[in-house]
Amino acid sequence: MSAARFYVTTPIPEPALTLLRAAGSVEVPDELPDAARLREVCVSGDYDVVVSQLRDTFDADLLAAAKIRGISNYAVGFNNVDIGAATANSILVGNTPGVLTDATADVAMLLIMATARRAVEADTFVRAGRFTGWEPNLLLGQDVSGRTLGLAGFGRIARATAKRALAFGMQVLFCPRPPGDRPVPDAELGEFAGLVTHTDWDTLVTTSDYLSLHVPLTAQTRHLVDAGVLAAMKPSAILINTARGPVVDEAALVAALKSGEIAGAGLDVYEDEPALAPGLAELSNTVLLPHLGSATVSVRAEMARLCAENAVAMAQNRIPPHPVNPEAWNS
């Protein structure tokens, strides 16, 4: 078997590059490849596998022309790849599921707490030298304990967020995958049976004090939270998004935050990332993080290992350990 050839669009942590180099040659560009360069890489025939990021887009036209065996996404999500087109062209796709569950749930809880208690505003207030002593009405925030957390989606990250919220004394509602009207038996809830309550999407929206999004980006979930949903939320409600940016209509969110239609938002992802919707950065009732959900040293290293193992397997014409589309394998 000839040595594998890998193109890594962005440097990723070890042990990824060591594992890839042990299996073949590795090219990491000095600059991020634009769409034209990514297409050139894929159609040249010079590479077996592209190790990609969410910002690298593989559409149907590109995949139809591509001469690669696989795409190893350094992410659990894969909405940057047209999976149907990849499968039709026998291009395997791998991702890195599971390892970032707790880290992302930690960030969801961080956003809940920081937005509710106005932590960023308070930090800025102190650093600006404006703190002159305790005052009864200084930077009053919202309660978290005893309030209702609504989870849109109830997969691994949502369940980990629920566990943290329950420890804070929150009441937890969930909608499995909006509209989520399928009954969820206790057997599927496992350790959460009797502790969380299934409800429909409309009820989740109207009753949650904190609405936290945990759904993948699909045609059905794009702009799941739009102007209508924001209008239906409580005026005191806070929106949390650690899922994917386009799940929220960001322009509508800015309008709702400016008008007081909802009280605040804590975001780790954005609709046109890394760009923000006009006006979002100027709003004091937001906490804005730069896509830090999986950003711990150990998690990013484990993601890198899984990503490299997927890439090596695909280059060697094997189904990767974490395939998105195993049916694309050409044995």
Automatic annotation (TrEMBL):
Protein name (record): Glyoxylate reductase
Enzyme class: oxidoreductase
Ranges in a coiled coil: none
Presence of keyword Acetylation: no
Domain named D-isomer specific 2-hydroxyacid dehydrogenase catalytic: residues: 8-325
GO MF term list: glyoxylate reductase (NADH) activity; glyoxylate reductase (NADPH) activity; hydroxypyruvate reductase [NAD(P)H] activity; NAD binding
Keyword entries, A-Z: NAD, Oxidoreductase
Domain of life of the native organism: Bacteria
EC number: 1.1.1.-, 1.1.1.26
Family according to the record: Belongs to the D-isomer specific 2-hydroxyacid dehydrogenase family.
GO cellular component: cytosol
Domain D-isomer specific 2-hydroxyacid dehydrogenase NAD-binding as annotated: residue spans: 110-293
